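yo, HNH endonuclease is done. seq:
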Amino acid sequence: MEIIDNPYKKPMAKNTPSYANNIIRRTLKTILDRELTEKEKTDIWTYFDSRCCYCDRQLDRKKREGDMDHLEANRCNHISNRVLSCSPCNAHEKREYPWVKFLRQQSSDDSIFQARKTRIDQWVAKHQIAGNISKQHNLQLEQEMELVTQTLNEAVARLRNLRAHADTND
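structure:
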């Protein structure tokens, strides 16, 4: 199997306490807000004709060129909030930017903008749900994440203190 080097993919993060906290928080959230299934990913690739929904760049799934972007970054993982995006649009350009404003920026004229926006709006409408974790579940999730974060931070402080004492005894 040939490994394709994709210049748009970010390098692996370093193992730091903040990185561990981020992974733990994402993992806990995924329990209530699951990731897409393979069928859902295929449905997204098919609906968007293997093209970035923002810039219309042709993407090759076999080369892992496409990203399953969140239309609204701080919303759920539900299929109605996910679209096909190229890595430059998702990772380097759109980031937390509101998707409609970003789409307008990526469209050379109003007719292209309207066509792309209509396509995305139809996707969302086809799969529409409330799209958010309930307030009660979200509150419980935040409490659990805070508890885990606090526990990890305390362990990090203890280990750093241990290392500092070991360094002075050497």
